Amino acid sequence: MATVAVRAESERKKKSMLWDYLTTVDHKKIAHLYFWTGLFYFLLGGLEALLMRTQLAFPLNTFLTGKSYNEVLTMHGTTMIFLVAMPLLFALMNAVVPLMIGARDLAFPYVNALSYWLYFFGALVMHIGFLTGNVPQGGWTGYMPLSLPEYSGFGMSYYAMGLQLSGLGTLLTGINFVATIVNMRAPGMTYMRMPLFVWTTLIASILIMFAFPPLTAGLFLMIYDQLFGGQVFNVAGGGNVILWQHLFWIFGHPEVYIVVLPAFGIFSEVIPVFSRKRLFGYPAMVVATALIAFFGFMVWVHHMFTVGLGPLANGIFAVMTTIIAVPTGIKIFNWIATMWGGKLRMTTAMHWSVGFIFTFVMGGVTGVMMALPPADYQYHDTYFIVAHFHYTLIGGTVFSIFAGAYYWWPKMFGRLLNETLGKIHFWFFFIGFHMTFFIQHFLGLWGMQRRVYTYLPGQGFDLANLVSTIGAYLMAIGVIVFAINIVYTFVKGKPAPADPWDGRTLEWATKAPVPEYNFARLPLIRGIDALWLEKMAGHKEMPVIEDYHDIHMPNSTVLPFLMSLTLAIAALGFIWKEEFNHAFLYMGIGGIVLTLLVMFFRSVIDDEGYHIPKAEIEREEMKGVSV
Amino acid sequence: MTTTHPNAMSDIEAHGHERSAEGEVQPTIELVTQEGKNKQLGVWLFIAAESVLFASFFAVYLALRHSIPNGPQPKDLFELPLVFVMTAILLTSSFTSVMAVMNMRQLKSSAMKGWLVLTWLLGFSFLLLEIYEFNHYVHMGHTFTSSAFGTAFYSLVGFHGAHVAFGLLWLMTLLLRNARREITPYTAPKVYSFSLYWHFVDLVWVFIFTIVYLMGKVG
């Protein structure tokens, strides 16, 4: 057996920052990559939303019409779900889940880097259409046969290939987090002692494992029909267009919980810390999370009530859908009970959490309204639906990402975001949000159709649309304040202490900044809220289970980047063979061959990592022990 | 666990643990390191996800297997003797990969490699027969683009074939890289991961045999 090299700090080559991030397998750096990329697409998707709201500010406006509007609409939805919500949650998961369970990294650091780069290149492939003139325009749901080239050009091929790449990355992330949480917990960290964010990450990852494959299958069939003469969605060839809707929503509904369960987890971390109380009803929270995930697989037809599957199918799925309100309600009451009688500190993170409870309940109520098929025939394809899912996705996921960003910023970047700017950010965004979307419930009930680029004057839509547009600009101001806050913090912010919020969970027991091996000696966990328990017992640090020793680290590598790059080349080759010239087929095949070659090198080269010597770790740990 | 095994000889059990002469349960070589344990769990999780992927393709096939505006019917296409031979070959390759893992756990390097080479040859002959079969269908007018049934058939069966082909590349890489290496806690999980994957690919074929070919003949 080959021996693993011991490399002291002096031997580890100093790398440029660019090369370091291109080759890193460290979960903390990958979290940074996810965060900045996700934030970039958040700004892009937000800009697309502003373009749409500007067009809709007045009846018969001509700012952004027809095909252009459809493109912006499609890219806004796809971007926000796949390139913003999930990656930003992955950023927070990568940053803190290993720390919360006392692990030195994820189970598969290499695969973690691969996941990120697949997402990076998937997002890029999706946007290449802006250069070739074929932007996706068939809606983020990619319904058939609208997404075939006859109707939408080759834009939807960029959508399909881009999602296929980033979806593979997401699947690998899901597997990685399940393996990590099952196998890598520190001694004493039993399942029922895990922080709730770890629980929700685990369950969302299981959802990813079972929900993404139907999308993968559906996208393969879409690609076959678009680029390889497949007949699955071509009625003349015996195809069936409803199949796509089933595959998409069997994925699509669990996807809603993939992005909202981790959000619930974040609030379940923030609320106890700033209430100075342990989470109320911890076991009930865990069971409720699992139940939501379980029922989440049995409700997909509520997206298809108007397709005409019959009263029996609609009825069964309506009942299943309303049942989900029960575990969700349990959660809401538990958060309120956690705050009840607590010593509240209204930090920015706490503002987002309280704002979330208020907003998300409204999204939940409209959700139950739409779960009833006869009523849904009225709401279907109107702005009522738009209002509903923005209340859940912004009120749930986006609020949680902001809460998590303010809460974990010191752990991720070693500084505290400015709280005053944070509250300005919150109020602009919160008021703007409700201005934009509350009125849309009524627009929907009054009969305004979604996805249409304009409306006629004199239908009573004019004022409400203007209010909605003004609200959208207020949200944009909030986001700009957030951006200013980030810049201000990097320029003027002071280094944050290791535990600035008087935290309860294990990530706050690590040093500031967190060393690359996370824990010099693995901690012993003695209960829920492990760090708080030790603080209450009068201990300054976590008890440890081992002496200092050499720590085994994985090597950084550029192969994940190359593997994703070659797959992206293949994806573009296959699109361009239909869009431009059949010779691009060779580019597609070449990309696949190159990918296999990279995989071959990954397999053939022994990569056993290296050891950080014990002396160096001891020296680091003695340096400025944080209090 | 301190009870002694009824069989005094230290033997290897199916669930991946080995009993020493004293009767203590020890993990087998592919599971002694944390990386090995992670790999095993990771492959199982990957297989779980792949099961859903294949289930989706099966569902699409079942929905579209009668959608044949052009081209021959399944009854006229499928020939059970050929498919039966393919099934026998693939299931045998599962057996040979088990033998390879058994030998790996006893650190018999050359026997392990021998069984792996046999596994590769069986998998390769399966693939050749499948290529022959597809070629035959295309000549009969049953192509990827001939009908929804055609696309669904090749999506499902071809996707399985691609898994076999990928498995063969994987196994060849393993054999090449380990040609001069011994069985160690670093190399053993790689072989074990492959064998898990290979069993899964064989299991999917059992479902294809039943749902595509048997139901196509009689359904």
Quaternary state of this entry equals: heterodimer
CATH topology of the largest domain in chain B: Four Helix Bundle (Hemerythrin (Met), subunit A)
Radius of gyration from the alpha-carbon trace of chain B, in angstroms: 20 Å
| H-E string of chain A | EHHHHHHHHHHHHHHHHHEHHEH
CATH architecture of the largest domain in chain B: Up-down Bundle
Number of helices of chain A: 20
- The tally of domains of chain A stands at 1
With helices defined by DSSP (H or I, 4 residues minimum), what is the helix count of chain B? 6
CATH class of the largest domain in chain B equals: Mainly Alpha
Largest sheet of chain A at a glance?
3 strands, mixed
Low-confidence stretches of chain A: none
What is the CATH level 1 assignment of chain A?
Mainly Alpha
Write a brief caption for the model:
The complex is a heterodimer of chains A (627) and B (219). By secondary structure, chain A is mostly helical.
Polypeptide structure, described:
- The complex is a heterodimer of chains A (627) and B (219).
- Chain A has one domain: Cytochrome C Oxidase, Chain A, CATH 1.20.210.
- Chain A is an all-alpha fold.
- Chain A contains 20 helices and 3 strands.
- Chain A is globular, with a radius of gyration of 25 Å.
- A 3-stranded mixed beta sheet of chain A has the order 1-3-2.
- Chain B is mostly helical.
- Chain B folds into 2 domains: 1-29, no CATH class; 33-218, Four Helix Bundle (Hemerythrin (Met), subunit A).
- Chain B contains 6 helices and 2 strands, in the order E-E-H-H-H-H-H-H.
- Chain B has helices at residues 34-64, 74-77, 80-105, 109-139, 148-177, 188-218, and strands at residues 17-19, 25-27.
- In chain B, strands 1-2 form a two-stranded antiparallel sheet.
- In chain B, a hairpin with a 5-residue loop joins strand 1 (17-19) and strand 2 (25-27).
- Residues 1-15 of chain B have low confidence and may be disordered.
- Classes of the chains: A mainly alpha (627), B mainly alpha (219).
- The interface between A and B is large, with 46 and 44 residues.
